[in-house]
Known about the structure:
- The protein is an alpha+beta fold.
- It is 39% helix and 21% strand.
- It has eight helices and twelve strands.
- The chain has a five-stranded antiparallel sheet with strand order 1-2-9-4-7. It has a four-stranded antiparallel sheet with strand order 3-8-5-6. It has a three-stranded antiparallel sheet with strand order 10-12-11.
- A hairpin with a 2-residue loop joins strand 11 and strand 12 (233-236).
- Helix 2 (129-138) packs across helix 3, helix 4 crosses helix 7 (239-246) and helix 5 packs across helix 6.
Amino acid sequence: MSPVIPITPASATNNCAPVAAKCSLCSFNRLCLPQGLAEDDVARLDQIISRRRRVSRDEALYQTGDSFHSLYAVRFGHFKTLQVNQRGEQTIGGFHMAGDLLGMEAIGAGQHSCNAVALEDSEVCEIPFSRLQELVMQIPGLLQQFHRTMSREIQREQSVMLFLSHMRAEQRLALFLLNLAGRYAQRGYSSTSFQLRMSREDIGGYLGLTVESVSRQLARLRQDGSIVLQNRDLRILDRSKLEALSSGGMAQELAVA
Length: 257
């Protein structure tokens, strides 16, 4: 059985990490920039990573308008990216976990267009972009992996557009839970038992739903036996129901329930 997502160690609350970051020692390097690289090339990537940076819960890794200098590979913990409009309303752009790369939205403009905020005590590896640019010209495999990473980010943004334009509330939430389960499975964790690190408000901000709608849809999923949810601890009992719901197969049934 795959392990449940571990609790972040208490030592993560320190903001400075004296230990040098090592891609070769990271258990999530298969999901990050080192994927597919030869051992010698991974060692060269290790050399440009400036430091590990620890980010406390609710602390911003970077904010809208900050100058762009580095990319950040999530080593452990979870982040949300968000934008705030003039009325103070938040739009959640995504949720990020170990192995994900943060900061790519700033490459073109040279400054960040969103906030990246830790959902729990977390740690990132800071990768100076100027040094990464030099290295990708020397290592073709690294350039290919960087392009794959950017492609995944584009696909993620397209998925969000699909959420907001074509799917009903129950479909959005079911697909969101399935997506989370799949991402945890990729990292070697349980695809059926995990903790929702984000609040219902954050989930609503990501899916374009109100908090009330998110709570209502979660209650329906509990009632029909698809999930068990205690506080933020979620267990998927019937994946087939979630899959049917995400494709619209059960939408009419839930609509009249």
